[in-house]
Design goal:
The chain has 12 helices and 7 strands. The protein has helices spanning about 5-15, 25-30, 75-80, 125-140, 145-150, 160-165, 175-185, 190-200, 205-215, 220-235, 240-250, 255-265, and strands at about 35-40, 45-50, 55, 65, 90-95, 100-105, 120-125. α2 (about 25-30) crosses α4, α6 (about 160-165) packs antiparallel against α7 and α9 (about 205-215) packs parallel to α11 (about 240-250). By secondary structure, it is an alpha+beta fold. The strands form 2 sheets. The protein has a 4-stranded mixed sheet with strand order 6-5-1-7, covered by helices on one side. The chain has a 3-stranded antiparallel sheet with strand order 2-3-4, with no helix packed on it.
């Protein structure tokens, strides 16, 4: 994943606005009633059966990252029996009175012929799709799934927009928490810094701060552990310290054991 230069990140973090609206986002948001849909290519390793699940083979052969709305699961034996096509991603926004009421996301397969009240935008460039999807997610309360849809888009650098969404207190709380979670999956050094800032901001929403501490716990140990240790040692909010200690307790990193020893012995 390409990482922006520090100067660009500083500008982004300073602005902390929602993703910029794009022409594609305007077309999605401009549909009043019915369904608007589009397709785009996905990252290497992402595949799906076009109906019930999306899978990330880069995280292991049996790794599933999304299931259908029915929560369909398969036994370990049947996982390998299901087809898993490497794209394209297909996303549909159900609109009512101009608002998004539901988002459906698939990888692989084809749209059903004869669907009514559909505006089909066709297959679009994946980076442009990701930008538009994040812009829609920032605007619409029920479009959280569009964040995940942007994450899997091929060649898309999404973490700067995710960080901007996470820091924007004008967005819906659930949208911000979702952005924080996926930010941890796409984190580089600058993104890690952004998560730390969210966790340490006393003026920040409590649930968003908690999600930021959790997201830090999901990072590779060299990125997340030092920040969590700092939070556990010196953050002024006892709830943040407890959260950091809880997630540190899930690790067997020797630095964590040393911290616990220091706390328990008072040294």
């Amino acid at each position: 994943m390409r990482i922006l230069g520090l100067s660009a990140v500083a500008v982004l973090v300073g602005c902390a606005t929602a993703p910029a609206q794009t022409a594609l986002a305007d077309r999605i948001l401009g549909v009043k009633d019915g369904t608007v849909r589009l397709a785009y290519s996905v990252k290497e390793g992402i595949c799906g059966d076009g109906e019930t699940f999306i899978r990330d083979r880069t995280r292991g052969e049996n790794n599933f990252i999304s299931f259908d709305d029915r929560g369909t699961r398969y036994s370990s034996r049947s996982w390998r029996e299901r087809p898993c096509e490497p794209g394209p991603a297909r996303i549909a926004f159900v609109k009512d009175g101009g608002a998004v009421t539901k988002v459906r996301l698939y990888v692989g397969g084809e749209w059903s012929p004869g669907d009514r009240d559909v505006v089909d935008l066709g297959e679009v460039a994946a980076p442009a799709a990701a930008k538009a999807l994040l812009a829609v997610a920032a605007r619409e309360r029920r479009a959280d799934k569009a964040i995940f849809a942007a994450i899997i888009a091929d060649s898309a650098v999404v973490w700067p927009d995710l960080l901007a969404m996470a820091k924007n207190d004008g967005l819906y709380r659930d949208t911000r928490k979702n952005a924080v979670f996926w930010l941890s999956q796409a984190a580089g050094d600058a993104a890690t810094k952004g998560l730390s800032e969210l966790a340490e901001d006393d003026a920040e929403d409590r649930e968003v701060r908690d999600q930021a501490v959790f997201a830090l716990s999901q990072l590779p140990s060299e990125q997340g552990i030092p920040v969590l240790i700092r939070l556990a040692r010196s953050n002024q909010d006892p709830k943040v310290r407890r959260k950091a200690l809880f997630w540190l307790g899930q690790s067997d990193d020797p630095r964590v054991l040393k911290l616990f020893e220091e706390i328990l012995t008072g040294k």
